[in-house]
Amino acid sequence: MSDANLLQLSLLLPLLALVGIQFTARRENLREAVSLVAASALFVVVAQLYQPLLAGQTIAVHWIDVLPGLALAFRVEPLGLMFALVASFLWIVTTLYAIGYMRGHGERNQTRFFSLFALSIAAVMGIAFAENLFTLFVFYEILTLCTYPLVTHAGTDKARQGGRVYLSILLGTSVGFFLLAIVATWLLAGTLSFQPGGIFSPETSVALLSVLLVLFVFGVGKAAIMPFHRWLPAAMVAPTPVSALLHAVAVVKAGVFVLLKVCLLIFGIDTLKSIPATEWLLYLAGASILLASIVALRQQNLKKRLAYSTVSQLGYITLGALLATSAGMTGSALHIVMHAFGKITLFFCAGAILVAAHKTEVGELRGLGRQMPVTMTAFFVASLCIIGIPPTGGTWSKWYLMLGTFEAEQWILMALLMVSSLLSIAYLLPIPLRAFFSRNPDLQNTPTSDGATVIKEAPLPSLIALGVTAAGCIYLLLFPNAFYQLIKAGI
């Protein structure tokens, strides 16, 4: 099969999975097998694009001209392939996790869930391989619309309220800022195609470029930069597999990926450095990192604590892109990968705790490590990845982000990153440590005949999934080169 056909297949496979899921709706084992096979096939297809791209081959397809110069078209470029590899692999493990969670928690409308999940991945592939801003915007909006029913999956008043916040902020920022930025880019540059080094001529007014950069940063609401972050905690009413989708596989990663791609391939590093607005947007990203970390520290609900942690960590990626240095861009791109594995593991663990122990509050988790040793060990490993210390891959992204602040001589931001990492330690590490080393008299432990505590973990599919992603956090410390090569080829 040609590389161009592989690209088209990567866009169509999730849609074929959607059809298969609908046809097998009444046979749940077959329905879930369709999801797993499609997810695995997608990862294999995307992986086959890796070597041809690094060998310098151009892989592109053109679907339709909507208007002269405005096309629905796709091209494989290094950062897009990196994003697609992460999303397609995590679709496999999230599907596996969801099988255990949805059955164990007795969730209704499971066919609708798996169908919309497949549709969301189709939108992600469109975003990852978009050749231009128009194509990217179309799939960006599709992703918003097809994840909304997942957020409101429970059907309760609280779920519907969370969904309204989710939809209003994401659509509001898209239409009010992002679409306006795209139109202005077309008028200023005469093209919307992504190009290495950017698309604006040196004669373009820096004042106009400043306004444009602000519109892009605020318009990509999925990046959850403050003050447009409230949709993320509000969406935590969704089932845990949806939270994993939002935080690691699709939505927030799509947002920061779009920002990184815009900074690198629409503005370019040299242009970014010359724009006055870049400086204060850097400090806005820094404030988002710090404030969200402080709010996370105060949250007692586990999923909300993880949600505000995500807001903070997304600020790292935005900050790295806006530093406009090679190390900053590298750290930003690496953090998309490292945060994906770390945060999806944390949400997997939160869902496992809910299913097996019916606990949702941080204070209820003392002593839980005796009942759920695998889950809490995975939580500990993922926490280290988010903090950015060995033996996890988060070490590399935080290292390059620190180098980026050094290259840009942004000493205040360097100090802020250090403080934020200390806050990450404060709101994450006590959870697994207390689970293992504290006793909770309110926790009903049923002893065996020899006095040992009964192990009561989540269903096996969920346990396997969180074990795989936790192992991925460690693997990425030892073998980051596959992603590093892609990133260096794209910067």
Automatic annotation (TrEMBL):
<feature type="transmembrane region" description="Helical">
    <location>
        <begin position="113"/>
        <end position="130"/>
    </location>
</feature>
<feature type="transmembrane region" description="Helical">
    <location>
        <begin position="368"/>
        <end position="390"/>
    </location>
</feature>
<feature type="transmembrane region" description="Helical">
    <location>
        <begin position="245"/>
        <end position="268"/>
    </location>
</feature>
<dbReference type="Pfam" id="PF00361">
    <property type="entry name" value="Proton_antipo_M"/>
</dbReference>
<feature type="transmembrane region" description="Helical">
    <location>
        <begin position="165"/>
        <end position="187"/>
    </location>
</feature>
<feature type="transmembrane region" description="Helical">
    <location>
        <begin position="136"/>
        <end position="153"/>
    </location>
</feature>
<feature type="domain" description="NADH:quinone oxidoreductase/Mrp antiporter transmembrane">
    <location>
        <begin position="130"/>
        <end position="424"/>
    </location>
</feature>
<keyword id="KW-1133">Transmembrane helix</keyword>
<comment type="similarity">
    <text>Belongs to the CPA3 antiporters (TC 2.A.63) subunit D family.</text>
</comment>
<feature type="transmembrane region" description="Helical">
    <location>
        <begin position="463"/>
        <end position="487"/>
    </location>
</feature>
<feature type="transmembrane region" description="Helical">
    <location>
        <begin position="207"/>
        <end position="225"/>
    </location>
</feature>
<feature type="transmembrane region" description="Helical">
    <location>
        <begin position="6"/>
        <end position="24"/>
    </location>
</feature>
<keyword id="KW-1003">Cell membrane</keyword>
<feature type="transmembrane region" description="Helical">
    <location>
        <begin position="36"/>
        <end position="59"/>
    </location>
</feature>
<feature type="transmembrane region" description="Helical">
    <location>
        <begin position="306"/>
        <end position="324"/>
    </location>
</feature>
<feature type="transmembrane region" description="Helical">
    <location>
        <begin position="410"/>
        <end position="429"/>
    </location>
</feature>
<dbReference type="Pfam" id="PF00662">
    <property type="entry name" value="Proton_antipo_N"/>
</dbReference>
<feature type="domain" description="NADH-Ubiquinone oxidoreductase (complex I) chain 5 N-terminal">
    <location>
        <begin position="70"/>
        <end position="114"/>
    </location>
</feature>
<feature type="transmembrane region" description="Helical">
    <location>
        <begin position="336"/>
        <end position="356"/>
    </location>
</feature>
<keyword id="KW-0812">Transmembrane</keyword>
<dbReference type="InterPro" id="IPR001516">
    <property type="entry name" value="Proton_antipo_N"/>
</dbReference>
<feature type="transmembrane region" description="Helical">
    <location>
        <begin position="79"/>
        <end position="101"/>
    </location>
</feature>
<dbReference type="InterPro" id="IPR050586">
    <property type="entry name" value="CPA3_Na-H_Antiporter_D"/>
</dbReference>
<protein>
    <submittedName>
        <fullName>Proton-conducting transporter membrane subunit</fullName>
    </submittedName>
</protein>
<feature type="transmembrane region" description="Helical">
    <location>
        <begin position="280"/>
        <end position="297"/>
    </location>
</feature>
<dbReference type="InterPro" id="IPR001750">
    <property type="entry name" value="ND/Mrp_TM"/>
</dbReference>
<keyword id="KW-0472">Membrane</keyword>
